[in-house]
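Q: Could you write out the predicted structure for this multi-component system? I'm mainly interested in how the pieces pack against one another.
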Amino acid sequence: MFNAIIKGLMLVLLGSVPCFAADDAMNPERAKYHYQMFCQGCHTPDGAGANAIPPLKNFMGYFLRSQRGREFMVRVPGSALSTLDDAELAEVLNWSIDNFAGVSLPAAGYTPYTAKEVAVLRTQPLQEIENHRASVLAEIAAQESQGAES
Amino acid sequence: MMSFIDRLLEQRARSAAQQAPRRGMLKALGGVLVGASTLPLLPVARAAGPEAASRPQESGSDTDCDYWRYCAIDGFLCSCCGGSANTCPPGTEMSPVTWIGTCHNPADGRNYVISYNDCCGKPGCGACLCQRDEGDRPPYRPDKTNDINWCLGTSSAAYHCSAAVVVGVAFEE
């Protein structure tokens, strides 16, 4: 009986460990190449953006502070409608976060995107971006200031 | 003893003076001075960055439309307009917003990621129009079309010419 309980507990523990499918393993060279081919043209080599092109650098991590923000980065047309497959898109998003989010990254880090998560989210590309982005950021700012007060 | 050393030194000095060209040092020094003065000192925009520095082995002339980096270009070659494949002509500004493709380098057999940076701020250069369009897509794929004016991140939207900067090596599966 005791052994059965231990076995059960181990199964529960193993099940709770985040695990990634083999196709979710990061290949930095491939990710960088996909960033160059599909993102860099507008977001620039260091993610700083230019004029109306929003920055990734020291900024994209803010979107990871809410579920809507997390979804936003997949649902923007550049991500959702790109010719990258789900695993490649998840990989380039994670690579971009690792390389550009900088000070905007949540202190606790983040859960990497998976191909499975991206596959679902990109079926709903955003039709209107600017207002949606502003409302996501306002929501995150309100949430952060509430957290600071409490 | 001292007179012997004096004579020896005098002989050696005369011998050296007879064998070496007298204007040799002046000539060498002049060459260095003139060479240094011909280094490009003009403030031209460059595609800076650590990767821009690592250039592949190349062949061909960057003023020819069939130069390998121009496989997807559509515009006036900056190398015919006072700039180069990497730099904008003086008086123009390189757009940070670009369209990006890959080209095969016949010199080493590898594929490279090429950034087509437009140089902006002056009217069209008019020299060396080159249109090759490999990998070009229609404007409904705006990030992969060379038919639009890419002077998007610059203070002026006036198109002058296009540069073709190597930004990396293409990833091969």
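A: Regarding packing and overall arrangement: Chain B touches chain A through 19 residues (CB under 8 Å).
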